[in-house]
Amino acid sequence: MSTDLDYSGLIRSGLPAPMPKWQGFPKYNFIGGHNDTNSIPIGDMISAVTNVLEREGASLATYGLQNGPQGYKPLREFIVSKLAQRSGIITNIDNILITSGSGQALDLVNTLLCESGDTVLVEQFSYGSAIARLRKIGVNPIGIPLDNNGIKIDLLESKLIELRKNLIKPKYLYVIPTVQNPGGSIMPEENRRELLRLSREFDFPILEDECYADLLWNSKRPIALAAMDNGNRVIHCGSFSKTIAPALRVGYLVADWHLLSQILAVKNDSGTGALEQMMLAEYCVNHFDDHVNKLSSTLKDKLETLVEAVKVYFGTSAEFEVPEGGIFLWVSLPEHVDTIRLSQLAAKEGIAINPGPEWSTDTKPASSKLRLCFGHPSKKIIEEGVSKLAEICHQEFGVPLRGANRIRS
User: Fold this and answer.
1) Distance separating alpha carbons of residues 158 and 187, to the nearest angstrom
2) Cα–Cα distance measured from residue 353 to residue 374, given in angstroms and rounded to the nearest whole number
3) Model confidence pLDDT, tens digit, residues 26-66
4) Which end of the chain is more exposed for a tag (fewer CB within 10 A), N or C?
């Protein structure tokens, strides 16, 4: 008689399919938000964690490092300084909550504001996990089309008018105004002001995600929506995943204390990882600006390699706007190319890409689009991977018109 328990009748219905065992990253890895391996500041991070542990290590004996549930005070102090310098946001440490990555920040806002059946407005092409998180809790994400300036303000206003006529009030608008994901656009200041006007007129809050805003080729950028808000309409979130290291899983929320105090009541994880917070605070005070400048230069160089490879191997079949920052290139292929099918074929050859529908509220407009992350692979791998991807695409869809291995000649 078997001693194993049969869980088939115990596991609740509606769960996603089980995950396969992880077999390691593919050779040509263009997915996720991974970053440049050689840019992780290992030596300075070792010094930072050593220094802070020698000075404050005993505080690890308590949850919250004796700094309370909002997170390590020196890290919040650094974030206050960084936001003022880079985003124009003037705030204080009482309005900042450290989270376990920006994903937890999104979950906390959803927990605070949303119930099943609610409506949330998002950019039509947006952070795939944000869209998935809304759908998982039964919220209806409605996508608003974008252009090179980000979300289209006129179409957003039209949708708001339509929803009002149908007695539907969106719980919030989720927007990535600075280095949009996946498109890479930067919303002009005039559009930001119009967005805030609509927020006031139709009475909805805005969740502003600026996870990529520090990775810019040109440091000039419009100030954040939260900096332009003269009230409490904008909830702001950011992350150290893209600037320092994804695996650290440290993000932050910025909100009015009245709102943040309620968010704290639903953040029941006993606190975000303490050692990561301590190390980041120690490191960032002395090194953040120099590190981000160097990383941005490295990423810009990789982007140029990717852009050139896509031009060479896909030719005019691929259309895209060159982003001014971040780690992604959003590519449009001819309409008959099914990028979900392309991703499946590419995976068999060790090439990982993000098909467009994973980053869209609506499948059809994104069916021939794909997102390529250039942060992690080397320039050599980028060129090889794009060449192989173009060859697969040619064999399956006739795009580009000639095989990739013959285009260069």
Assistant:
1) 19
2) 11
3) 999 999 889 999 999 999 999 999 999 999 999 988 888 88
4) N
Distance CA 214, CA 188 (A): 16
* Maximum CA extent, the chain: 72
Question: How many other C-beta atoms lie within 10 A of the C-beta of residue 253?
Answer: 27
Whether 408 shows a pLDDT value over 80: the answer reads: no
In this structure, the strands spanning 28-29 and 96-99 are: unpaired
Gap between the Cα atoms of 299 and 392, Å rounded: 26
3-state secondary structure of 121: strand
Cα–Cα distance measured from residue 277 to residue 284, given in angstroms and rounded to the nearest whole number:
10
By three-state DSSP, how is residue 370 classified? strand
Please report the domains of the chain, with CATH numbers, ordered by start residue: 28-41+289-407 (3.90.1150.10), 42-287 (3.40.640.10)
DSSP per-residue letters across 24-55: ---SEE--TT---GGGS-HHHHHHHHHHHHHH
Q: Which are the contacts of 182, defined by CB distance < 8 A and separation ≥ 6?
A: 125, 126, 328, 330, 354, 359, 371
Count of alpha carbons within 13 angstroms of residue 217, beta-carbon side: 16
Residue 231: its H or E element: none
pTM over 0.85: yes
Query: What 3-state DSSP class applies to 332?
Result: strand
CA distances in angstroms from 53 to 5, 77, 240, 286, listed in the order given: 45, 18, 20, 17
Residue 298: burial class (beta carbons within 10 Å; 0-12, 13-18, 19+): middle
